[in-house]
């Protein structure tokens, strides 16, 4: 018996590939959310938990929930982590996140179009950064990226390895 999943057909290197994303949580709530979006049209602002601006996360709450210790060390409140995990699509609007490929394999997640004041910007990420590892786990597939994302909920500390302009950079995020 497999968990319910979303299946997307995407094109990679000119060939169709099916991407499977397992769904956990309240399926009735998910169905309700989908019906709400269908009823109001495809506007991002219609997504549950989204603000009228389409950003979804209150910029003041995001800024208040993150403290910069130094250029590579940040602190984030557990409440903000929970808010982001409760509405990940809202946080995703703060940057464009795409798989990065090296030698024909996924070797991380690349960040583009990071919005000023977004959670990404406030946590020290820069446009063009490629996140390659989190707490020692390589991001070598979309499945692995989703596994790591799920682990964030209980983590007290994130050690994030990034490639920035061809050089390794380490970012530390403490959850308080």
Explain what this protein looks like in three dimensions.
With 176 residues, the protein is an alpha+beta fold. Helix content is 27%, strand content 36%. Strands 3, 4, 5, 6, 7, 8, 9 and 10 form an 8-stranded mixed sheet that branches. The chain has a two-stranded antiparallel sheet with strand order 1-2. A hairpin with a 2-residue loop joins strand 1 and strand 2. Mean pLDDT is 80; it is low at 40-55.
Nutshell version of this structure?
The chain is an alpha+beta fold. Helices cover 27% and strands 36% of the residues.
Keywords:
single chain; 176 residues; alpha+beta; 8-stranded mixed sheet; 6 helices; 10 strands; globular
Q: What's the pLDDT, averaged over the residues?
A: 80
Q: What ranges have pLDDT less than 50 throughout 5 or more consecutive residues?
A: 40-55
SSE series: EEHHEEHHEEHEEHEE
Strand content: 35-45%
Distance between the termini: 37 Å
How many beta-strand segments? 10
- The outline comes out as globular
Quaternary class: single chain
Label the structural class: alpha+beta
Radius of gyration: 17 Å
- Structure annotation, total helices: 6
How many strands, which pairing sense, and closed or not: the largest β-sheet? 8 strands, mixed
Share of helix among residues? Answer: 25-40%
